Amino acid sequence: MSVSVHRSGFIGIVGRPNVGKSTIMNQLLGEKISIVSPLPQTTRHRILGVLTLPHAQLLFLDSPGLHRSEDALGRSMVQAVTSVLSEADILLVVIDARKGITMEDERVFDRVRLALHQPIRAGKRVSIAAINKVDLVKKPKILPLIEACAKTGIFAECIPISATTEVQIPLLLERLIAYLPEGPQWYEPKDRTDQTITQRVGELIREQILLATRQEVPYAVAVSVDKLEEQPQISRIEATLFVERQGQKAILIGRGGLLLKRIGESARKQIEPLVGRKIYLGLWVKVEKDWRSDKRFVERLGYGAQLS
Ligand SMILES: Nc1nc2c(ncn2[C@@H]2O[C@H](COP(=O)(O)OP(=O)(O)OP(=O)(O)O)[C@@H](O)[C@H]2O)c(=O)[nH]1
Ligand SMILES: [Mg+2]
């Protein structure tokens, strides 16, 4: 008779910006928990995504891309990566197959190498490399990349995947479960994330801003949801969009308020399925000069290691 074992643990998803960390987490969860955009530094804090299966519970920790940044926001993002590196039982290190192994990846590997030497509850930790975006490269390019990953000596496995076309995503899931330590079901199956609805709504609005703006503007915007009120027919949501300068405010609002209106409409389409009803979405733009350099303001926004 085989005795079935229940496995659980934290899987920290780390890597340089824009390699597809959040896309991979969403694919593995089958739900959009983290926002995704073509711009680097989309994810600004640690985000928990829970996948409950009959014999395993996978607690994914999505993290911001590891990068060098001197302002308070950048530092809080790096701090979030550090906390994920120290807490995870398994480190899932994401690499972009199109770009190969860059200097920035090497810096991530150094951090992973150090983390692997730190003890953790379940004892030995492992790291797995996911070579993502293989849909964008020709097959002969993949094998040398797997070899280069293996050569680092820090990965238990190097798995080529494509998060968007779902190539080898089931295999990745299977291998992650195989390395999970034995453990209980920590979260109720209905719990998918530690983010509140308000925080998720704020992120969905920010996602539409990232998709609709250019140059410095997307990086200079923060969203604060001030009100989420259920009324008989609709939910009323009001949010403030903080920018750093008057010029950015003018760009975000657009001529005749057109851009802000477009952002609001596309955000509304994303938010309605999440809250499960029709919403009224009111957006206001406010200048908070150089907020990214203001540690207290960055903390107030909930960025950094933890949301709550
Ligand atoms: N073609 C292709 N594009 C992908 C794949 N995975 C992610 N992307 C795209 O890569 C871009 C970045 O994806 P994200 O998931 O936001 O990347 P990230 O690593 O979380 O980025 P940061 O949060 O900024 O560090 C998006 O435009 C995704 O659609 C993939 O497998 N194939
Ligand atoms: Mg991300």
Secondary structure blueprint with pairings:
Blueprint: E1 7-15, H1 21-29, E2 47-52, E3 56-62, H2 72-87, E4 90-96, H3 103-116, E5 126-132, H4 142-151, E6 157-160, H5 169-179, H6 197-212, H7 217-220, E7 222-230, E8 235-243, H8 246-253, H9 258-275, E9 279-287, H10 295-300
Parallel strand pairs: 1-3, 1-4, 4-5, 5-6, 8-9
Antiparallel strand pairs: 2-3, 7-8
The chain binds guanosine-5'-triphosphate and magnesium ion.
Residues 21-22, 34, 42-43 line the site of magnesium ion.
Low-confidence stretches: none
Structural class: alpha/beta
Q: How many beta-strand elements? A: 9
Described by strand count, sense and barrel closure, the largest sheet is: 6 strands, mixed
The name of the CATH superfamily of the largest domain reads P-loop containing nucleotide triphosphate hydrolases
Order of helices and strands: EHEEHEHEHEHHHEEHHEH
Structural notes for this entry:
- With 308 residues, the chain is α/β, with parallel strands linked by helices.
- The protein has 2 domains: 7-179, P-loop containing nucleotide triphosphate hydrolases (Rossmann fold); 197-300, GMP Synthetase, Chain A, domain 3 (2-Layer Sandwich).
- 36% of the residues lie in helices and 22% in strands.
- It is built from 10 helices and 9 strands.
- The strands form 2 sheets. It has a 6-stranded mixed beta sheet with strand order 2-3-1-4-5-6, with helices on both faces.
- β5 (126-132), α4 (142-151) and β6 form a beta-alpha-beta unit.
- α6 runs antiparallel to α9 (258-275).
- The model has no long low-confidence stretch (mean pLDDT 95).
- Bound molecules: guanosine-5'-triphosphate and magnesium ion.
